[in-house]
């Protein structure tokens, strides 16, 4: 009995120790950073990015991004190896496509991909934004809204705090589209709390590390929530409202199919290549809205 308690304590302690060593690092490059928005369809009669264009035997993603930046555009797209297009919004004629369609090597660097035939890889210059608020204390539902809505199915999905590990006296949760415990969150002083109408027990944010699902812990007494979150303006072109951010980034969320959980779709902050539990190709960019319940 005593031993079990000590083991549980050690696991918890180790978890907290690693989490606090990584979680609160606010890293925001002051340099312009471009993020891939996805692979889109494009036609010569109706351009997906219609602002400005260039063609070069020496095209790279970076060359195109600088060209668009200099032209005052915040979207840059590469296509068919050597073409570059700029705009400040993705035109409605462009539809999201499977990333596999963007498969052409760049004419100026064959280790980079520059779109495909009739397909354009679009990058967005995520202008640095500051947190608007570290509080959203009303009980709220979280929705993951697809940056590029799928052609079929809903444009957004509810997010829950899902229990993934339950032991005597405590539990760990992650943010996921799966539901088994908590359907509400609130944000206080940068820390997230997960609750449900029926359960008086609550969980608090533990860590939100790049590449992984944000974690929560439920234990008595409840520790302070780790303050990695805030509300920011919606960073995506043409979208309004405030959205949930972690460590100063609101544009890096994705929904990924979790291969170690039978394909359950989990929320991931800043998905990485070669993760043991998801394929980057099976992740879709989302932003997170909080709606008062
Ligand atoms: C956020 O909420 C907490 C708890 O209600 C409060 O103590 C704190 O002053 C608030 N912070 C701001 C900046 O409003
Ligand atoms: C995937 O599922 C496992 C098991 O439930 C969980 O530990 C992990 O946090 C999930 N998400 C990711 C991104 O690995």
From TrEMBL:
Q: Where is the signal peptide?
A: 1-21
Q: Which GO terms describe its cellular component?
A: plasma membrane
Cellular localization per UniProt: Membrane
Alphabetized, the UniProt keywords read: Glycoprotein, Membrane, Signal, Transmembrane, Transmembrane helix
* InterPro entries linked: Kremen_rcpt, WSC_carb-bd
Query: Where is it mostly found?
Result: membrane
Topological category with respect to the lipid bilayer:
Single-pass membrane protein
Q: Which domain of life is it from?
A: Eukaryota
What is this protein's record name? WSC domain-containing protein
Origin species, per record, is Mycena indigotica
């Amino acid at each position: 009995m005593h031993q079990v308690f000590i083991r549980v304590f050690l696991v918890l302690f180790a978890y907290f120790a690693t989490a606090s060593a990584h979680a609160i690092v606010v890293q925001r490059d002051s340099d312009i950073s471009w993020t891939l928005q996805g692979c889109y369809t494009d036609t010569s009669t109706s351009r997906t990015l219609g602002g400005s264009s260039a063609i070069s035997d020496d095209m790279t993603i970076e060359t195109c991004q600088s060209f668009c930046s200099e032209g005052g555009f915040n979207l840059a797209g590469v296509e068919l190896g050597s073409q570059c297009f700029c705009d400040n919004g993705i035109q409605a004629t462009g539809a999201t496509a499977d990333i596999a369609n963007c498969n052409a090597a760049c004419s100026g660097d064959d280790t980079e991909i520059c779109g495909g035939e009739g397909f354009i890889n679009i990058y967005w210059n995520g202008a640095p934004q500051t947190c608007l608020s570290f509080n959203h204390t009303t009980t709220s539902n979280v929705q993951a809204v697809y940056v590029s809505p799928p052609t079929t199915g809903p444009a957004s999905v509810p997010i829950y705090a899902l229990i993934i590990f339950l032991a005597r006296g405590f539990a760990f949760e992650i943010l996921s589209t799966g539901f088994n415990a908590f359907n509400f969150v609130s944000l206080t002083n940068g820390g997230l709390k997960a609750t449900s109408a029926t359960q008086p027990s609550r969980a608090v944010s533990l860590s939100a590390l790049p590449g992984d699902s944000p974690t929560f812990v439920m234990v008595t007494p409840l520790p302070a929530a780790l303050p990695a979150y805030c509300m920011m303006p919606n960073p995506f072109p043409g979208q309004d409202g405030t959205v949930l951010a972690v460590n100063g980034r609101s544009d890096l969320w994705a929904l990924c199919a979790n291969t170690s959980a039978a394909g359950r779709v989990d929320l991931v902050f800043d998905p990485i290549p070669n993760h043991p539990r998801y394929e980057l190709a099976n992740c879709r960019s989302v932003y997170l809205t909080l709606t008062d319940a």
